[in-house]
Amino acid sequence: MVFTDASFTQPIEAAYLLFAAFKLRSQRGHFRRGNSCHFSLICLVFHGAYMYLYWVSNSTPFFAALGPLLFGKPRLTEIEKLLRAEGDGYSLSQYQEAFGEFVPKALLGPADEKLNSRQRLFPQLITFWAFLAQVLERGSPCRDALRRIAAWLQFECPGSPSPSTHTGGYCRARSRLPDATLETIGDHMADQLERNLPNEELWLGRRVKIVDGTTASMPDTQENQEAWPQPRSQKPGCGFPLVKLVGFFSLGSGALLELAEGNRHQHEMLLARELWSRLDSSDIVLADRGFCSYQDLNEIACVGADAVMRLHQRRKVDFRQGKRLGPDDQIVVWSKPLQRSAGCTPEAFAALPSTLTLRMVRYLVETPGFRTKEVVLITTLLDPITHPASELATLYFKRWTVELHFREIKVLLGLDVLRCLTPAMIRKEIAMHRIAYNLVRLLMQRASITQHVPLMRISFKGTLDSLHHFSDAIHALAGHPRRQAVLLEQLLGTIAKDLLPVRPGRSEPRAKKRRSKNYHLLTNPRRKMIVPGHRNRPAKIVPKAS
């Protein structure tokens, strides 16, 4: 008896066919008394083995190639059919319509083996764009992302079964997004921003990278506390874990190029040392006094890059020594420290040179309202002709833009308070914030180039607001590429018209005008906290009777 491949597509029919074959051989006398194998025993063993292989083929087979050969490939889900269909179709997210060309689909396709190789209800492509929409729309919960997927599925396949209303499946799909894939996408975004950087955005023909650090809080869970403990000044149960982040930003494009994370016990300078090796030979590092050390200046010079930093407050300033290049401008020679710092390994300390030749520049800040009146810079740019002192002062004044970039990520995109419950998901959430920020920057850069306006005058908040409203209209025009192209041009024109005013030397005090509510602070865990009466009229303390 010959069985075709089609007979194995239905397991029950295949079982009846095989049993029929055994029954036919039994009737012809192939199973006689005296043989070691009896027909009933063979049928029982075969039935058990077949049912075991059938159920294993529907889960995870020990031999991956055995299941498809015996039972055929598993049935595709409705979402898998939509992803494999020809043509672009109707995208899951309106942001996919606006940013789809910036994200390579090959990075979000099914894997060949192991993780993300099976057919699932939430593939990588669907999960990534739903996760990105949560970041771009601050405060969007997983329930909202799940409703977005269900609505898209009903639009494309009316009457098809919708995903479960519970968010567990979608949350597990987010956890399956590989960290390496998210990092690759973030690097791809940053590379696009740097490649499209006009020459006029360079500083004296060179790229400048600003380094600085910040912190972000997250839910108070045991896993997060072990990875990023809260400050010791806060009682257990009354604080939140804090993650420390150090990033490289491009001065010309505003892109978030690199990101390193650690806990609050690690100094920002130690985290920045993980990033020095990723510098290019023509880069210039711009940093504040917290990164100015003998070891860091040497490591930056070893990769061929240069540095412009504010002199550390513990370094003595003496312009009477060294080679004078001009007023408040001279060459100085630093000697290797006598003692190794806590953050320097013995091998790295032994490899440090005995001296470093640097340049020290001092200038006065005469802008009214600025709290700093004198700034002393240290740099590896030794030539006063190609790099005048006035240009160095102007360059360091632009270092403040990194504070604005961190404000855009933390306040407008919600990085200030993360929402995931485990360290693994916190790292994915940080990576998605980097991707979302760079995607908005790409849109700003395209508007700057096509509309011929300075990039630094385009508002990040205005771009984000325009994207939220125009993306819905672009999404509604799926299948009409010409009308979509016209709407995209109108979006870029709207972004280019929303320019920031020119306010050189603007001074704003770092103080809040709006008062916070007069609530009691949590000084004990919530289940043990006893709040007194009215918060404006604290209860009187009655001494105990002696």
How far apart the termini lie comes to 103 Å
Which CATH architecture of one domain would you pick?
Alpha-Beta Complex
Structural class: alpha+beta
Separate helix tally:
18
* Overall mean confidence score, pLDDT: 81
Largest sheet: 9 strands, mixed
N-to-C SSE series? HHHHHHHHHEHEEHEHEEEHEEHHHHH
Provide the helix percentage.
25-40%
Residue share in β-strands: 5-15%
* CATH topology descriptor of one domain: Transposase Inhibitor Protein From Tn5, Chain A, domain 1
List the strand order in the largest sheet: 3-2-1-4-5-9-8-7-6
Note poorly predicted spans: 1-18, 56-66, 86-90
List keywords for this structure.
546 residues; alpha+beta; Transposase Inhibitor Protein From Tn5, Chain A, domain 1; 18 helices; 40% helix; disordered N terminus
What does this structure look like?
It is a single chain. The protein is of the alpha+beta class. Among the domains are: 5-71, no CATH class; 78-175, no CATH class; 205-339 and 348-412, Transposase Inhibitor Protein From Tn5, Chain A, domain 1 (Alpha-Beta Complex), CATH 3.90.350.10. The protein has 18 helices and nine strands. Strand 2 and strand 3 form a beta hairpin. Mean pLDDT is 81; it is low at 1-18, 56-66 and 86-90.
